[in-house]
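My main concern about presentation is that the manuscript never shows what a single data entry looks like. The format is easy to grasp once an entry is in front of the reader. For illustration, here is how one protein appears when written out as sequence plus structure tokens:
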Amino acid sequence: MPLRWQHVQIRSAPLPPFEAVVAEHGAVVLRVCRALLAPADADDAWSDTFLAALRAYPSLRPGSNIRGWLVTIAHRKAIDVIRRGKRQAVPFGDLPAVAVDDRIAVLEADLALRDALSALAPKQREAVIYRYLADLSYDEVAEQLGGSVAAARRNAADGIARLRELYPSAATAADTDPDRRSGDADVPR
């Protein structure tokens, strides 16, 4: 008896509701934005990321890597904020004091880490942020950086080694500060 091909339609799982995507990946996107930008700008970039993602979400293919997709959007929105900041006039003189909420106060207290990250070479900084803050795999980091997996591993390792040189005093200061939550200033080892 001859074999007949049967037409089988394979359906992939539908995309989850966008609200669930925000709940699941919002913290990762915020970590990426905060690693690249000042606290006030990071919140704006986070919002811009999810507004752009909401517009594009219906056309996203089922089975896509949503976290990687959102990190890419966040990275591009952060670059937009940096470019926009370079075009704005810089205020001078005394500025009035403004109220700061607790989240920003905690983040500003850890400027040493931000300075250490800023001192890294761009590829190292991005590899460290994507691997350790966004928790992307090395394959995904390589895709974000536009290089090989070996280069992503090397950039992340070199970046962590350099952070250990630049950030040791801040890590020990965080260990002795009782107001800091455990693990906030830890550099991956």
